[in-house]
Every structure is written in structure tokens, then in C-alpha cells.
Amino acid sequence: MRMPMRVLSMQRVRMCVLQICVLLTAMLAASAGVVAAEGDPVAERMLQAQTASGGWPKHLAGEAIDYTRPFNAVEHTVLAQVDRPDDATIDNNATTREILHLARAWRDSGEQRYRDSALRGVDYLLGAQYPNGGWPQFYPDRSGYRSQVTFNDDAMTRVVGLLQDIAEGKGDVAALAPLRGEAARAAVDRAIALILDLQVRIDGVPTVWAAQYDETTLAPATARSYELPSLSSAESVDIVRLLMRQPDPSPAIVDAVERACDWFAAHALRNAAIERIGASGGRPRDVRLVERAGATLWARFYDLERQAPLLVDRGGEVVGALPEMSRERRTGYAWYGTWPERLLEKELPAWRRGLATSRASSGHR
Asked: Hey, how many other C-beta atoms are within 10 angstroms of the C-beta on 112?
């Protein structure tokens, strides 16, 4: 007896659906097997990029290192070089970023290679610290300004914060505390003592911090030609935040925070804003400083004499205003910003309240 065509068609459809489901299940299983075999792809690439000293570079084959994609042939060639330069650094989040990711990957997967790599990174940071408590921007290559004690782009501040997380058993690196917590605590203590010493005093009055210091004299120093010795508002904000997170802060820490915040308040540029012209996600076509009622800005740098905004073109030429600067430098650097705004408006009052509560409960006067 012949079956109706509609029934045959429905059976064929069911069979096709079943075959597709089987195929998809097999593909998903194969994919899961590959992921399981490879582990965390980002972590695996970090293992490849780690240098002999235990740190990580910020560039690979001349470009900013990108762990979100497989390394290309040129990058693999660089990594495979027997005499590959050790360009490990703490600049641009390098090394701290990798330690954090590898610690998370170890926590999530239990893969010992990730733990061992993260520990090598922590040991790199501990070994790179100067006896005075500071960190160079690069290590072991300390040529040129790479040797300076570097707060620029929050390099050293980020390192101290990571080590304090390890010492306190907090966040993604909490599991490293039993392994490196004691050494991390000692490194943090040295760093905080140095930070207090480095707060720039002008006519005996504490101000804020420079972006980089000579590692021997500890005087504010020049890095790139347009980064002259100066007070740095941007970097000083995260230094203050680091001081504010210290448990049971000493009178010296409290004074450093209060003096720095007084300086921020006194050197704000009122009713001023930055206008970016033609900005569409990348570098703007131009930048200008404009009047805007109610807006507040700070210059990135202030000179060490008048404590006035400091603008510097390539070649180290000091200029009086943005229009006098080359367009390349005017649009390629953050000369003004609102960095201290949230600190002054939200974080400082909350810190003061917490400090008062803590001292009241412990009987401090």
C-alpha cells in the first residue's frame, strides 16, 4: 500500500531535522573538546608572550600586543627568537593585566601553568622594585627614561594596587596571598613610604606628585621631550586613591591626602571645557579650550615654580596656549581633563566619613 505523498514528505523533513541535530551536537562536542584541550585562549597566548624575566611586553612585532586574537606568523616568529629582547614593562597595563587574567584563569580552570605564570609575573614585580620603594617603567631594560620611578599613566600606582590586593587576599589574585602575600606586603610598605616622600613641596607646602622621578636623586624628571619635570594632576589622582585605600592610615598619609586635595581644589580651572572638533572615535581633527559656565577642568601638568598649566610641544618647547602648539601634539595628548572631579566630589567626603567612623569606634581622638 503506497503512503500519501504528504506523509512521505513529513517523514523526510523529520529525518533531515534529526540529521541536522546530530550533526550540530557532534560539532558542538568537537568544539568543546578543542576549547578544553586549549584551555583559556587568552591565557595561552599570555604564556607564550611572557619574557625571560617573568614580565610581559606592551608591544609585539611593533604593534600593541593583542591577546584577543591568535598571534599571526610575524608575531610567532618574534616569540620564537632565541635572542628575543626582554622588553618587559609595567607601562600601558603590561604585566599587571596578564597577572590578573592568569590568576582568574587558574581559579576558574585549576590549570597549574596559569598559576605558575602568574607567580612568575608577581616575582618579576617584586624583583623590579628599587630598594627605595619605586619601580622603573621597564625592567630589566632600564635605558634612558625607562629607569625612572614612573607614575606616568598610573604605572607604579597600578603595580602597588595589585600587590596590595595580593597582600590582603582580595579580588582575582586572592588565591596568591598564601604564596606571595608576605613579600607583597613588604613591597607595598616600601612603596607607600616612598610616595609620601615624593609629594612635591613648593616653598615648604605639600602639593601633588610628578609623573616620573630620577631613580637616584628622586627629583622630578623629564621623560619624553614634551613631558618635563612638573606637577601631574592626572597621575596624582590615582596616587591619592591608593593612599586612601590604606587601612588605618597614619597621620602622614592623612595629611598627604588632604594637602593634595587642597591643591586640586585650588588649581581647578573654573568655567572651562575642552572641545574636540571632528572626533569620531579616534584622534580629533582639532582640540580647543573654551569657556563653559559651570564646567571645571585641570591641566595635565603644572610647572614647578608658578604652579600654572604647562603645555609643551615636541622638542621640549613650552607654549603659552593650545593654539600655539603643533596640531599633532595638540590632538595627540590629554593636556586637560577632569581627573580630580569625582575624587573631590564623591570619594574624598566618603573617605573622611569612613575615617571618622573608624576612629570613633576604636576610641581615637
From this structure: 9
Which pLDDT value is given to residue 359? 85
Three-state DSSP at 224 gives coil
Say which residues have a Cβ less than 8 Å from residue 276's Cβ, sequence separation at least 6: 284, 286, 287
93 is catalytic: no
Distances (CA, A) of 125 to 96, 138, 161, 297: 9, 11, 12, 34
Contact of 191 with 160, CB cutoff 8 Å: yes
Cis status, amide bond into 220, omega within 30 of 0: no
224 is catalytic: yes
Q: Which of 63, 151, 150, 51 is nearest to 98 (CA)?
A: 51
Written as nine digits, the cell of 221 is 624628571
Greatest CA separation found in the chain? 108
pLDDT tens digit sequence for 45-78: 999 999 999 999 999 999 999 999 999 999 999 9
Residue 180 identity (one-letter amino acid) = R
pTM of the predicted structure, to 2 decimals: 0.88
- For β-strands 286-299 and 212-213, DSSP reports them as unpaired
Cα–Cα distance measured from residue 202 to residue 205, given in angstroms and rounded to the nearest whole number = 5
Of the residues 113, 224, 245, 292, only one is catalytic, namely: 224
